[in-house]
Each structure stands twice: as structure tokens, then as C-alpha cells.
Specification:
It is built from six helices and 13 strands. It is α/β, with parallel strands linked by helices. The model has no long low-confidence stretch (mean pLDDT 98).
């Protein structure tokens, strides 16, 4: 399994047979200026909620790659109005599970808000638990810390988790360490940090906190794999 970071909360995951992309926000992100969005390939695009910093390139990438877009029902309806082919969409909602050709996906709650760039209601914000190539991981989306995360850790063996750590709009690094314990994983890939002044973090302080918490924290460079 190969994981590539495209900045903010956007990651690509590639296996021998499948390519998954999460929350595509690349072209408006100055920190991702060297990423060519037209070189990104995807078979599936997963969207956690409707804010622009998670959907900015979704329409373009869906049309160009033909990827199946998985998102809340309301976001799927909005994407279809933007010209995304209904046949390449898969609407879901909180708590739902579906088995795709690569493995199982469950939508789990996220405590945040969700509206599309034009103000359209984006449904409930969500995260994903995905089983892929013998691994199970949690992509939290934008969320606050909430105690029911422990149910994820009880239901699944989470190998690693993508967690927001930038604070202000989401949980911070301290809450992310608690979230890692709740979902019962020791491996965290940080996201939703540094992109805007509100969410800049001290990298060394974050790594020090993770070490003290016995968490293997990855702060990936943009474009890094």
C-alpha cells in the first residue's frame, strides 16, 4: 500500500489494483503549488464533507478520471448538478456500510459542519473506516474529539488513522492523541494543519507530544509518499 500526501487533508492511497483519493483540495492550496492535479489518478474519490477545502478539485478530478465518488447523499446530488455523471457516484450516509470491489467502507460520524462552496447544504459531516488490502484504517475527516470514537476501536482493528491536528476548526494535537487511544491505534497520519494561519502547528512540539503518548506520528511532506 502506497500513501501519497497532496496537502491539507488530501491523500492518495494506491494498491496493486486500486487508487483511492480523499478530500481533493489541491489547486487552491498554495502549499501544494508543485502538485499537478492532472497527474493524479483515482478509481474512487471519497469526500468527508462539503467545505471548499475538501471538494475544490472534486468535480474536475471526477470528470477527468471517471472515478466513482463516494460521499453523503447531499454532496452527491450537488456533484451531479455540477456535471458529474450519476453513474459514477455512490451516495451514503452516517453509519452505512458498503462492500466495493476493493473492500468494505463504513461512514462514521464526524462533529463539524458541512456546506458546499455555493452555500448548498452538505448533509452530515462524516469520516470513513475502510478495509483495503488486508489493512483497516480510519479517515476522520474534519472532526472534534468525541467519546464514541471508542466504538470504532471496539468494532475494528485499526492499523492507522488519518486525524486532523490543526485545531481552531477541528481537534488539536492533544485531542488527536486521545482519539488515537479511543480508536485503539498507535499510528497516526496528521492532516488539516499548516494550510491557513489559523491552523499552523509547531511540528517539533507535535512530534514530542506523540512520542510521549507512544504514538507513531507521520507529518508527511506535500508530494511525499
Amino acid at each position: 500500500m502506497k500513501i501519497t500526501y497532496f496537502g491539507h487533508s488530501c491523500f492518495g492511497i494506491e494498491t496493486a489494483h486500486h487508487r483511492l483519493l480523499f478530500d481533493p483540495f489541491i489547486t487552491p492550496n498554495p502549499l501544494a503549488a508543485r502538485i499537478d492535479v492532472d497527474e493524479i489518478q483515482a478509481d474512487y474519490i471519497f469526500i468527508s464533507h462539503g467545505h471548499e477545502d475538501h471538494v475544490a478539485d472534486a468535480v474536475h478530478l471526477a470528470k477527468r478520471t471517471g472515478a466513482t465518488v463516494v460521499a453523503a447523499f447531499e454532496i452527491i446530488e450537488w456533484l451531479k448538478k455540477q456535471g458529474v455523471d450519476a453513474a459514477q457516484t455512490h451516495p451514503m450516509n452516517t453509519g452505512g456500510k458498503w462492500t466495493f470491489d476493493f473492500g468494505q467502507v463504513q461512514m462514521v460520524p464526524a462533529f463539524h459542519s458541512s456546506s458546499l462552496p455555493d452555500g448548498t447544504y452538505g448533509g452530515s459531516p462524516i469520516g470513513y473506516v475502510i478495509q483495503l488490502s488486508g489493512k483497516t484504517f480510519y479517515y476522520a475527516g474534519d472532526t472534534a474529539l468525541y467519546t464514541d470514537m471508542k466504538l470504532i476501536g471496539e468494532q475494528y482493528q485499526i492499523d492507522f488513522a488519518f486525524l486532523p491536528i490543526g485545531s481552531n476548526f477541528t481537534m488539536d494535537m492533544y485531542d488527536a492523541m486521545t482519539a488515537a487511544r479511543l480508536v485503539n491505534t498507535r499510528t497516526v497520519i496528521g492532516m488539516h494543519y499548516d494550510t491557513f494561519p489559523y491552523i499552523k502547528i509547531d511540528h517539533e512540539a507535535a512530534r514530542s507530544l506523540a512520542e510521549k503518548s507512544s504514538i507513531d506520528l507521520h507529518l508527511m511532506p506535500i508530494g511525499g509518499t
